[in-house]
Design goal:
two-stranded antiparallel sheet; globular; alpha+beta
C-alpha cells in the first residue's frame, strides 16, 4: 500500500510541532533538532517538516511505496509522462536511506516517489550536480534558497529524458541549516 507524503519547510520547528501535533492529535514519530515526521494511518500520510534553510512553505509532495517493484512501477509511469526525472539509489534524506525518483509537475511542484530501505543518523547531504543542482532545476526552475538535502550519499543518480539515461558525477558536502 502506498502512503501520501508532504514535506513543509517551517520557520520555527517547536511551534510547528505543537501545531501539527494538535492538528493530527498525535505526536511526531520522529523528532530531531531540525526535523519532525508524523507517520499517520488516518489519513494515511507521511507528513514531514524541517528547518533546512528554505523559505517556509511547501517543499515537495510524494508517494512512499513499500517495495522496489512499486517504485519501479511509478518510475515507469513517470517516464511515459515525458517529463525529465531524476533517479537516486540509496540516497540519505530526512534521517532515512531510500531509492527515489523525482519529477516536477507542469506547475513546477516537486514530486518524490521513494522506497525507504533503512534509517540514517544524519538528515542528508547536498550534491552538486553539473547542470542539475536539484529537483527544482529538473523542471527549469530557479534553485531553491538552499539546495535539497536529498542527494545520494553513496550510490548512483541518473537523469532520464526521452528514455535515455545520462550518468552524472556527484560531489558531496554537508547540509547546513541557516
Amino acid at each position: 500500500m502506498k502512503r501520501f507524503h508532504v514535506h513543509v519547510a517551517v520557520a520555527n520547528l517547536e511551534q510547528s510541532i505543537q501545531f501539527y501535533s494538535t492538528f493530527f492529535d498525535a505526536a511526531p514519530t520522529v523528532t530531531k533538532e531540525d526535523y519532525a515526521k508524523w507517520m499517520l494511518d488516518d489519513p494515511r500520510i507521511n507528513f514531514a517538516i524541517s528547518t533546512r534553510g528554505r523559505e517556509p512553505g511547501l517543499d515537495h509532495l510524494g508517494i512512499q511505496v513499500e517495495n522496489a517493484d512499486s517504485l519501479n512501477e511509478i518510475s515507469m509511469r513517470l517516464k511515459k509522462a515525458q517529463q525529465p526525472i531524476l533517479e537516486q539509489e540509496q540516497t540519505t534524506c530526512c534521517y532515512a536511506k531510500a531509492d527515489k525518483t523525482w519529477v516536477h509537475d507542469p506547475q513546477g511542484i516537486a514530486w518524490e516517489s521513494f522506497h525507504t530501505t533503512d534509517m540514517a543518523t544524519t538528515y542528508g547531504e547536498d550534491a552538486e550536480l553539473p547542470g542539475l543542482a536539484g529537483p527544482r532545476e529538473l523542471a527549469g526552475l530557479p534553485a531553491a534558497q538552499a539546495s535539497a538535502c536529498c542527494a545520494p550519499e553513496s550510490g548512483k543518480s541518473s537523469v532520464i529524458s526521452e528514455n535515455q539515461p545520462i550518468s552524472i558525477s556527484l560531489t558531496k558536502k554537508e547540509c547546513k541549516s541557516s
